[in-house]
């Protein structure tokens, strides 16, 4: 049932809820004053501690550590109280536990609030187990799982509130997760606020992703507008809350496709308490793992080459080969090729030479190589050498003592012989001294040689860095023929070798080279330092390769994964994932959970249905169409212009109209970066002139932007204008279809599409 249509003051429980809100806000305000003063005192103590810190005093160190910890906690508590002044909670549930008389009235908010004097729970954190009643259960018999087990009972009330600036604006009594009116109001808001406000409207399918078991790898296929990014961030917040005694926020890592994306989500992280979570791109993480700085090309450069539909026949032939070799390098086939190469490295890694002390063999080559290839095969190659070094050292120590004892025995026997065969006198004494001196000299040589013998032997083992090994595979023709050509065929192998050597010579690497080099580093050297990451969230994962994710899984052995993406938006298909089953099979060996977010909450029915007509033209059963939430708006407008200049003028006029309708975030989406620059020239140089997103921005600025289609992925706007939807610009190719689909699924409210000569056939029937 919904009581949303009536005035909030006419709700039967209005008086009760107003009283409760006033009580909560009163407590918040009281505590805000106390907490502000307490925070000030802690800050002063920490400042003094740092100023007078004595590095030799363990007590000073302990005091400073405790002070810093208290400072962090006070920061969080103060921030929560400030947020609670405006919106203390968003829901209430009444739950009567089985065999208990008391009905618990629980108010759910973004954070917990506990009355310190008697530990009364004023607000329940949305991540608490009991809050699952709100997200998952309907009125009547209900249950939730707590650390103590399954708690059964009766859910008697589910009520939602809209509270802004401490004012009760709306309230709804509901049965399922969210009333239509409440959800419509939330979805109808501006793009700028939506990332932050999802907690109150989390749907059951989203809730299952958020609260899924941390240790079972989770793969999520999420429709455009299904809330993948916000759900990913809330999942981290939930896991940090649930495992707060076991893990720190720093033990969680978000891997995003680019810096722009990280900048885009950065403002919501502090509100969720996950700002200390490691945020990185695959490229940045690879540099950390490899331990050597190197340049990586912007992957969009190659994409731009592939999306250019005006190429010559020669360019098309080159691009076809370029794309094919990229696909190979990102595949598990290439992982098998690298494994085969590593096997050849192993076979010749130990020099075919016995380990000797003088003429005495301490360990034979066969013994050493057997240790290397069998006993320590689980270790990276260079780590095995550390173990073999221990064997050589121990064997040498044992044999050295035996050799010295033998030298001593020979010396003693020679002296006895001299004493037996010669009369006592100056000559005999001279020979005895010479024998002892020779013995001492020989023992000294043995002692001296034994100090360096292991090091000298180990130094004969040739070790290259990962980049050199990668190059050796390409440049050793015999090796390359047997390992690579035999797997992929001579024609593409020849192209790949020539192209890759050029890339290596330029010192500006393609993204496709990174996973193989990273994998070589891991298999040969291992990871230099333990990476303190226990859970990894990969967003926009459809544009990662199976090889990339396989490499991450092997490097961070004890970690778990949440992988989210949308195959319909796989614009880097030449190196990305073709089917989620590939990840489940090759990376997680079938031991993973797969969930689908079919609902799209971003855009209107009209816009989503138009976008679905475009993506369905690919006739690919692996692409799951988005199912829009029932929120209607204006139809998609397709507008013909006489010229690019007129197109820009029409867009500028519509921007003014949309701004008057309180739309703040507006994007003009062109297919490529060059098109963006061209379109930008047609806008007058005023303070309202759109700015061009290049992907190199240090921070994401909302407002009016011009953005290439491939950088728009993951972003959302109140309104979108797609420029240059020409027949020759978007053709019936997988990449073009997906780029157009990405562009069409960015707006919340309005979508206008412009063309000059002939409209792309992809929009037929839209």
How is the topology of this model organized?
Layout: H1 14-51, H2 58-86, E1 91-97, E2 103-109, E3 113-115, E4 120-125, H3 132-136, E5 140-146, E6 149-164, E7 167-173, H4 180-187, H5 191-194, H6 204-210, E8 218-222, H7 228-242, E9 252-256, H8 259-265, H9 269-272, E10 278-281, H10 282-290, E11 295-296, H11 299-307, H12 313-329, H13 332-349, E12 355-357, E13 360-363, H14 365-375, H15 381-421, H16 426-459, H17 466-475, H18 477-488, H19 490-506, E14 508-509, H20 511-525, E15 535-538, H21 546-555, E16 560-565, H22 580-586, E17 593-597, E18 599-600, H23 605-615, E19 627-628, E20 637-640, H24 644-660, E21 666-670, H25 673-681, E22 691-692, E23 704-708, H26 709-712, E24 717-722, H27 734-744, E25 747-755
Parallel strand pairs: 2-4, 8-16, 8-17, 9-10, 9-15, 11-14, 15-16, 18-19, 20-25, 21-23, 21-24, 22-23, 24-25
Antiparallel strand pairs: 1-2, 1-6, 3-4, 5-6, 6-7, 12-13
Helix pairs in contact: 1-2, 6-7, 10-20, 12-19, 13-18, 13-20, 15-16, 17-19, 17-20, 18-19, 20-21, 23-27
